[in-house]
From TrEMBL:
InterPro entries: CBAH/NAAA_C, Ntn_hydrolases_N, Peptidase_C59. It comes from the Bacteria. Pfam families: CBAH (PF02275). Coiled coil: none annotated. This is Linear amide C-N hydrolase. Residues 17-279 form the Choloylglycine hydrolase/NAAA C-terminal domain. Belongs to the peptidase C59 family. It comes from Bacteroides uniformis. The keyword Hydrolase applies. One of its GO terms (molecular function) is hydrolase activity. Keywords: Hydrolase.
Length: 301
């Protein structure tokens, strides 16, 4: 088993841990910062920005041997745990820290192979775990706030509203889906949470895992943020990547990680069952060989 170590504000001298389970993840900035992934036991984990609401314990150099950087928590959990209960136990033994005080805090989502999911938020230096049967999470505010906010949308329903006369007028729906009039369409985390909730709850049951994965990507297509739409008028740069830079769907029962990137909308898949983790070292490979969308040319004869 390979030994890994967490960063601290003073360098690579934090918590050491030996990987019990092999995992595959997608990282940002550097290979240690895995933000979404799954291990060979079917445990999936991801992190989401949590600005202005989270507060970690202050870094204490005297406790650096149990200090774990927030952006390495996903790697730690995937290497150490196979169930949600194991996640709770493992994290009770560590101090989650921020290695750069300028960075936003984050919160995390963990889903085990049975489908059980919990969310971790560290507020006022205290860990809070929430069972999340809804299975939806976005950025700030906290999960319980998002649940409360759903009370504002109890009028929403799938399908088309029935005709309803306004006195002598007989208005009719312009088209299908009028039951969701009022569904928020902006890119803020609260609005994305509401949309994700309704899209998930109204998604039809699929006959197999692959169908569920592709349906997940259809849902997640609604959360692509076009470059420039979050910037002030005239301030958008063509070199600034859109968000999200990649989209992931995990088959937790068959241990497959599917993803696409902002540069390549074709879906790629990594089958963890085909990896001999005893022979594979911790490594990083680029998601895109080229930052250009491949196009399949069709020839008309």
């Amino acid at each position: 088993a390979q030994e890994l170590q967490s960063l601290t504000p003073s360098g690579m001298d934090g918590l050491k841990f030996r990987a019990k389970h092999g995992f595959v993840g997608l990282a940002v900035e550097q290979k240690e910062f895995v933000v979404e992934g799954m291990n060979e036991k079917g445990l999936s984990a991801g992190l989401y920005y949590f600005p202005n609401y989270g507060r970690y314990p202050v870094y204490d150099a005297a406790q650096r041997d149990k200090s774990l950087a927030d952006f390495q928590l996903v790697s730690y959990v995937l290497a150490e745990c196979s169930t949600v209960d194991e996640v709770k136990e493992a994290l009770s033994q560590v101090r989650v820290i921020n290695i750069d005080p300028r960075s936003s805090t984050v919160h995390w989502r963990f889903t085990e192979a049975t489908g059980r999911q919990v969310v971790l938020e560290i507020v006022n230096e205290m860990m809070n775990f929430y069972d999340n049967p809804l299975g939806v999470l976005t950025n700030s505010p906290g999960l319980e706030w998002h649940w409360t906010n759903l009370n504002n949308y109890i009028n929403l329903q799938p399908g088309t509203l029935p005709e309803h006369n306004f006195g002598p007028l007989e208005p009719k729906s312009f088209g299908h889906g009028s039951g969701l009039l009022g569904l928020p369409g902006d890119f803020t985390p609260p609005s994305r949470f509401v949309r994700a909730t309704f899209f998930q709850l109204t998604a039809p049951q699929q006959p197999d895992a692959k169908g569920s994965v592709f349906q997940a990507f259809h849902i997640l297509n609604n959360f692509d943020i076009p470059t420039g739409s979050e910037q002030p008028w005239g301030k958008a740069s063509a070199n600034v990547p859109s968000a999200p830079q990649f989209t992931v769907a995990c088959d937790i029962r068959d241990q497959k990680v599917y993803y696409r990137t902002m540069y390549n909308s074709n879906i790629s898949c990594i089958d963890l069952k085909t990896i001999n983790f005893d022979n594979v070292k911790y490594q990083a490979d680029p998601l895109d060989e080229t930052k250009e969308q491949p196009v399949e040319m069709k020839v008309i004869k």
